[in-house]
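Encode chain A's predicted structure.
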Amino acid sequence: MILLFLLAFVLIAYLHRPRPGRTTLTYRIGQVDPRFGLSREAFEEAIASAAAIWSTPVSRPLFRQDPQGAIEINLVYDQRQANLEQVKRLNEGLGASVRAFEDLKTNYQALKAAYEAKRNTLQADFSAYNQKVAAANAEREAVGRRGGASPDEARRLTLEGDDLKATLAVLLTRQKDLEADRAALESTLTAGNQAAATVRAQGAANQAEGQGLTEAFDEGEYVRKLGRQTITIYAFPNGKILVRVLAHELGHALELEHGRDPASVMYPLVRSDAWELSPEDLRALRAKCGLD
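Encoded structure for chain A:
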């Protein structure tokens, strides 16, 4: 008799329990671990955004916050979030190395352009100088063949010779400066190659370490046990992903199963940070709400 009574009680409770998708499910916020650096208010906003992902397409409030809500939503910090934060630090270190390499690359390109422009100008000026020297030498040879220069020609040739000597001195100084520029360019290239090698080595090391830290794990879970419902979020890299993970677990609260489309909110792994349902999600939701 007692067994029949218990069975009847369970049946009545089952028949009168809120039907996901056809009534509004209530939730309350439980634990919010401060190590996430997220306030209860911010967590509350994230949950509301996740709930809207499901409610908006059917123009119906499927979830509502209530101090006595049936679903307790918790934010629990464990090794999963610690691992994500470690990966973030690794990536930030790699990002700094990449930025250093990009700065060296930009500097090298600017130095190279300036060096090539100075080199081309110096080569043109040396060519013009050599032409003047050749012309001066030809004129002196002609003067010598006809027996010597007049006083005016001698003064002009002397002045031209002095100008050519002064020009050569300037050209040689510029050539020395150009050699210094070439040395700076080669030094920058060497530093750039070293920075590129550092980026490659650090990237490979980060990839190897990151794979060990972020092997597939559950960012969150929905549990219904002994009449109690809980959603627990364990890890998320940023606010957009937090909303996506919350939306996934709220989908389970709607009794939706995992999807096959990687773009779906209900796909087992987080493959997107978009705050919208896929066609697969919409079909499952409409069926659950009795809209098909």
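The chain has six helices and five strands.
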